[in-house]
Please model this.
Amino acid sequence: MPKVGMQPIRRRQLIEATLATIDEFGLADATISRIAKRAGVSTGIISHYFNGRDGLLEATMRHILTDLGTAVSERRTLLGDAPPRAHLHAIIDGNFDRSQTSRSVMKTWLAFWASSMHHRPLQTLQRVNDRRLYSNLCAQFHRVMPKHQARDAARGLAALIDGLWLRGALAPEGLNVERARRLAYDYVREQLARVETPEERSAQAAPRQRSGAQSH
Amino acid sequence: MPKVGMQPIRRRQLIEATLATIDEFGLADATISRIAKRAGVSTGIISHYFNGRDGLLEATMRHILTDLGTAVSERRTLLGDAPPRAHLHAIIDGNFDRSQTSRSVMKTWLAFWASSMHHRPLQTLQRVNDRRLYSNLCAQFHRVMPKHQARDAARGLAALIDGLWLRGALAPEGLNVERARRLAYDYVREQLARVETPEERSAQAAPRQRSGAQSH
DNA sequence: CTTTATTGATTGACCGTTCAATAAAGAATT
DNA sequence: AATTCTTTATTGAACGGTCAATCAATAAAG
Model:
């Protein structure tokens, strides 16, 4: 066997260079020649390891998504069957993990969001991720409130997270992670406090869950 | 004077064609030849009326922003000094106005957001708009709560609006305008209800009710 | 006639991909 | 230990294609 083991090294280098290049020039002007130069390799190597520019971009998005998934599940596995609030906080914290809140990653995310509307492979990745966030949130809220209410709480929280994140990416001062988390926590608190609000309570009287009363 | 008065007609045509083309192909592939073909004119006309592609894109973003501003202020001028809740609802409604929730406009918005990170003229427009939304919200919340609390309420609501809007643009089923407005209304209600929460009350003293008794 | 409106072929720049050629690292052989 | 040998790694010039901008020429309205 000859010179081997370069693949994982080059892939990491190139994905890193892609993030930096998108950060500096934007997705449209992140040409393979710029990316290759930043990674310190020739352009041909990109096609060799990623089947061209599109493959590299897709791999870059996959990389960020994997980091996000890890950031969330690392926090949640520690929790076991902790109360919903703890899991919701863990999901929030994962979404605002350091790996997701650097300038280059936020910019790349936003670029991919826009691009995913017209690019099938990216669209698939983005939708899988969206649904995962939503259904994780929904499952936790559903532990303490009826399904229709849990759905709305999840929709609201998912939108709030994405919105904080989006505004952080666009704001000149960047994202204030601590404040973003606090605002999301507040939203969780309000939603959980509404569990037994007068309008919702009128139907039943179970102290913890209302497992019998889920009509749409 | 010879043949005159084409400018406003062509400008409207071309902006409309730009929105449709971005909707269909995405910003990166919205070439002047595609836009011109859709508008039924030649490519040269774009440079003639907009000083090139960038000018057309900037004018398109300006056009959407103007519509947004109109949608909001039309609703608010009717209100006079109505209570904060009414103004906040008007701002929400304006942001979810029909002119802002069509597929092509939402897609274009998202594309411009991403692009504005690397393109000065778009960045300026986008930031002016961001600040306008934030400070409008802030001013209304501040009428019934201390400034620091109003700021957080405004930050949260702004993020929620943008997030709902973003997720609507990306979701396969599109944006459910009614539901988005309801979720935003709910957020407003919760924030206004917190006006006299124990933690916040220690400094102030205004007559209000406790424990979730809101009027519509 | 004069000015505005409009065309569309041309031009120059740049981009992604390809591929023949070269380098380098281990394995096999001597 | 020196030598081929073989496979992977890597280069970068060449190619075909596309795009935005330009501009000389034409059309049309007063």
About this structure: Chain B touches chain A at residues 25-29, 107, 110-111, 113-119, 126-127, 130, 152, 155-156, 158-164, 166-167, 169-172, 179, 182-183, 186-187, 190, 212 (CB under 8 Å). Chain B has two domains: 1-51, 60-201. Residues 1-4, 6-7, 10, 41-45, 48 of chain B lie near DNA strand C (CB under 10 Å from a C1').
